[in-house]
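Let us practice reading a record.
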Amino acid sequence: MNENRIKTFLPTVDPDSAKWWVIDLAGANLGRTAVKIADILRGKNKPIFTPHIDTGDHVVAINAVDVVVTGRKGESLIYYRYSGYPGGLKKTSLEEMRAKHPERIFENTVKGMLPKNKLGKKIIKKLHIYAGAEHPHAAQKPEELKLS
């Protein structure tokens, strides 16, 4: 009776074997690009994907200042953060965020597409975003990821 049981396959993931990808966000659509990046970070593009195990790769996103939003989001999109104190609600528009911290626009978008638990906090650390074209991850030999 025991010989007919099906064994569950659980992948063993070595953190050193994770690939590194570099993606150029210049002219890329914010939401569509964030979905693809979230899938790569989570490992959904691999055949060994397991929902409760971190099987994803590292992603280096460059030129975050040049990411494109469609429609009226440039005028109407507002980012909120709350300090926890009465009257501590802060509002920042997309244009203000683009001027001060352009990498946070893409980071907040991808973060919203990841699980809201300990695994999601671990996965978001593998996303490296830079406003310009330069990044310090040349030693990891990242492969270029083309957007279609």
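A brief commentary: Residues 3 and 97 are 60 Å apart (CA to CA).
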